[in-house]
């Protein structure tokens, strides 16, 4: 029964469907984007990373993410959305019959890779589509990494074991930074690099990547990975006591481990790991570098008045800003003695204010963005 329904749905959606995939964005009336193809072409032509379909009482609203801002794009009739959603489910190999539970999937469209997430609310199904980047996007020019971060990668190359932590909020670019670093390490010499990812965001040639469906698998998979003699392990986010302990043990037994954690700043990252049950002294003995990163919005040339280029947001781009702490015997003793101000005045600590001041002087950010950043890291 299920296969017949799916076959009927495919026939309905794909038979006699012709689309001009190469029409220009300006020819599309964004207020009435009503087909899957039109919506996807709008995403591609406007360099949009995320599309949100939000089910409301009488319609479905489409939003997109632009430089961290959520912007309304269009509205769909419920019947229009049902047709689009069914097509997304089929292309993503998501069950269209038993669709009450949250579901994830992926599909390709015009040689671009997209990730899909579905969840129900009281008015219907919400859908988020994210366009994934490729390793071709992982260039210094595209990522706009500051010199402070690039210099720190040279320090990473000097170590053969230990723990590297990236901290920051969701969507701050932690996974992208890790992928960039892995690519740089692979350029140096042949290494066995194994990653655990939920979900997989980049295909990295030369790395052995393991995609998991839920975090309950992470601990057992990491235990098995250790038997495969890796040089470098990328474990993804540390969320539980058990996984935190195993991550630290992996780094203490001769492996080079890269992980992430949600924290407001580099010192808060250490506190978070302590709260997960890690011994502070052992942790500091094993840590090599802690990063905290998040984005700042770059002013558009319209001076925040809003124009077509910046989608009337006043901002034309986002770039990452980093806080960096190198862990060595000196910084370890200062942290154990709670002498944080002395660390901040040392050469082993890179304040995000260095980059923020530079951007402010260059006129790329305003004082409002500067102050919001400082507040967000607990400054």
TrEMBL record:
CDD domains, alphabetically? PulE-GspE-like
Q: Which GO terms describe its cellular component?
A: plasma membrane
Return the InterPro entries for the record: P-loop_NTPase, T2SS/T4SS_dom
Name the domain of life: Bacteria
Keywords in alphabetical order: ATP-binding, Nucleotide-binding
Query: Is Nucleotide-binding one of the keywords UniProt gives this record?
Result: yes
Annotated GO MF terms: ATP binding; ATP hydrolysis activity
Limits of the Bacterial type II secretion system protein E domain:
37-339
Q: Which Gene3D superfamilies match?
A: 3.30.450.90, P-loop containing nucleotide triphosphate hydrolases
Pfam families attached here?
T2SSE (PF00437)
For the keyword ATP-binding, the answer is: yes
Recorded family membership: Belongs to the GSP E family.
The name under which this protein is listed is: Type II secretory pathway, ATPase PulE/Tfp pilus assembly pathway, ATPase PilB
UniProt lineage: Bacteria, Thermotogati, Thermotogota, Thermotogae, Petrotogales
């Amino acid at each position: 029964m299920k296969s017949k329904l799916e076959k009927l749905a495919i026939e309905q959606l794909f038979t006699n469907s012709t689309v001009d995939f190469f029409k220009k964005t300006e020819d599309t009336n964004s207020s009435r984007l009503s087909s899957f193809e039109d919506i996807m072409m709008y995403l591609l032509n406007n360099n949009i990373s995320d599309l949100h379909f939000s089910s409301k009482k009488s319609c479905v609203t489409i939003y997109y993410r632009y430089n961290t801002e959520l912007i309304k794009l269009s509205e769909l009739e419920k019947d229009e959305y049902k047709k689009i959603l069914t097509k997304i489910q089929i292309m993503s190999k998501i069950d269209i019959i038993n669709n009450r539970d949250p579901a994830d999937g992926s599909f390709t469209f015009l040689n671009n890779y997209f990730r899909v997430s579905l969840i129900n609310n009281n008015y219907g199904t919400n859908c988020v589509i994210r366009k994934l980047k490729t390793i071709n996007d992982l260039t210094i020019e595209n990522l706009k990494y500051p010199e402070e971060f690039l210099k720190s990668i040279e320090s990473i190359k000097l170590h053969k074991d230990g723990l590297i932590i990236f901290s920051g909020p969701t969507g701050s670019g932690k996974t992208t930074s890790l992928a960039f670093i892995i690519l740089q390490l692979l350029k140096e010499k042949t290494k066995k690099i194994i990653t655990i990812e939920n979900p997989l965001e980049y295909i990295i040639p030369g790395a052995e990547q393991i995609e998991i469906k839920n975090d309950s698998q992470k601990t057992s998979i990491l235990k098995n990975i250790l038997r495969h003699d890796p040089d470098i392990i990328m474990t993804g986010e540390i969320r539980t006591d058990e996984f935190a302990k195993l991550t630290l043990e992996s780094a203490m037994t001769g492996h080079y481990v890269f992980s992430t954690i949600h924290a407001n700043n580099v010192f808060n990252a250490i506190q978070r790991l302590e709260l997960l049950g890690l011994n502070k002294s052992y942790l500091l003995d094993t840590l090599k570098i802690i990063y905290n990163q998040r984005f700042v919005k770059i002013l558009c040339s319209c001076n925040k008045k809003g124009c077509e280029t910046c989608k009337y947001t006043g901002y034309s781009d986002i770039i990452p800003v980093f806080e960096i702490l190198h862990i060595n015997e000196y910084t370890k003793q200062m942290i154990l003695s709670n002498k944080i101000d002395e660390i901040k005045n040392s050469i082993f600590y890179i304040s995000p204010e260095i980059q923020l001041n530079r951007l402010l002087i260059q006129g790329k950010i305003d004082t409002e963005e500067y102050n919001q950043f400082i507040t967000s890291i607990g400054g």
